[in-house]
Design brief:
alpha+beta; globular; Uridine Diphospho-n-acetylenolpyruvylglucosamine Reductase, domain 3; binds flavin-adenine dinucleotide; 289 residues; 4-stranded antiparallel sheet; Enolase-like, domain 1
Length: 289
């Protein structure tokens, strides 16, 4: 439970951090809240020789609105996401999700950037970002680029982030006012990772679902967009038969492993149940009931 030796760097600017990352390449890792990386180092599942603490870099902090997007700095903590009035007004699913991550001590240190860059299928924010159509803004020695959350995850702990890149912000398009949202998470106890969880963003017009986006957490090596489930609910009033079809479609894309949270069959079943609950809650919210 003692990590291997490492050199600690605390750059004061993004330029300095990128220079350290370039110098040490694969031997260096950015450090944000440390609540995924440090446990992995203690378990010797990661042994970076250089840790680059992002905590003093002003460019990575803050939440703001830029045109039709909300831009959230990579080192904004999960506690700051919960406290943000701007997010509560424009992207309430982010607060709802952050409140279901771990416990308050972890949320005071854990960051949005660390949560989405980590690549752990158990992290809650990646599916939410996929449902919201978010873009991850990353910077490396080759310059800045944006990667859609839906294209970022390649496998368990494998992402599109290159070793010389730092995630600097998450850019989220603001959904229409009055949209429906829900992040429903089944877990064994407070502070646990999801047995299965589902993010839903939808809009309603004339009593029917006009748009829908659904993504699943921890039921496959990566977060999953449940495209067919979303397609099935559009144009409907979400009657019981539609809800069942959508839940079945979510189950069909889920590919969970058997683990301490249950068998693969149980967790797949729960992906359907939780998707049904998230859809019903999001639809009720959009209708104002
Ligand atoms: C007991 C416990 C329970 C937890 N429960 C949950 C849970 O229910 N749901 C959940 O989602 N999470 C959970 N977590 C994880 C927690 O939310 C972490 O804080 C989060 O996953 C990682 O954020 P961090 O800021 O701590 O990142 P770190 O641990 O510092 O970093 C994680 C990884 O991301 C990389 N990284 C970090 N920031 C950047 C960046 N800006 N650019 C590039 N790479 C970067 C690091 O190099 C590292 O590989 C739990 C953690 C613990 C210890």
């Amino acid at each position: 439970m003692i990590p291997g030796p490492f050199t600690y760097h605390r750059p004061a600017s993004l330029t300095e951090a990128l220079a350290v990352l370039k110098t040490y390449g694969d031997e260096a890792r950015p450090l944000a809240g440390g609540h995924s990386l440090i446990p992995m180092m203690k378990l010797r599942m990661a042994s970076p020789e250089h840790l680059i603490d992002l905590g003093s870099i002003a460019e990575l902090k803050g939440i703001s609105q830029e045109g039709t997007d909300i831009v959230i700095g990579a080192t904004v903590t999960q506690a700051e996401l919960i406290k943000s009035d701007l997010l509560a007004a424009k992207l309430p699913i982010i607060r709802e999700t952050a409140q279901q991550i771990a416990d308050p001590q972890i949320r005071y240190k854990g960051t949005l950037g660390g949560n989405v860059a980590n690549g752990d299928p158990g992290n809650d924010m990646p599916a939410v970002m996929q449902a919201l159509g978010a873009q991850y803004v990353v910077q490396g020695s080759g310059g800045k680029r944006s990667i859609a959350a839906k294209d970022f995850y390649q496998g368990s702990y494998f992402t599109a982030l290159q070793p010389d890149e730092i995630l600097i912000a998450v850019r989220v398009p603001v959904p229409a006012a009055g949209h429906g949202y829900a992040y429903e998470k089944l877990k064994r106890k407070i502070g646990d990772y999801a047995t299965a969880a589902t993010a839903v963003i939808l809009s309603v017009s004339g009593g029917k679902i006009a748009t829908a986006s659904i993504a699943l957490t921890n039921v496959a090596p990566t977060p999953l967009i449940a495209e067919e489930a979303a397609r099935l609910v559009i144009g409907t009033t979400l009657d019981a038969a539609t809800l069942k079809k959508a839940a079945d479609a979510a189950k069909a894309v889920a590919d969970p492993a058997t683990d301490g949270r249950g068998t693969a069959d149980y967790r797949r079943e729960m992906a359907g149940v939780i998707t049904g609950r998230a859809l019903a809650k999001a639809f009720a919210r959009a209708k104002g009931v």
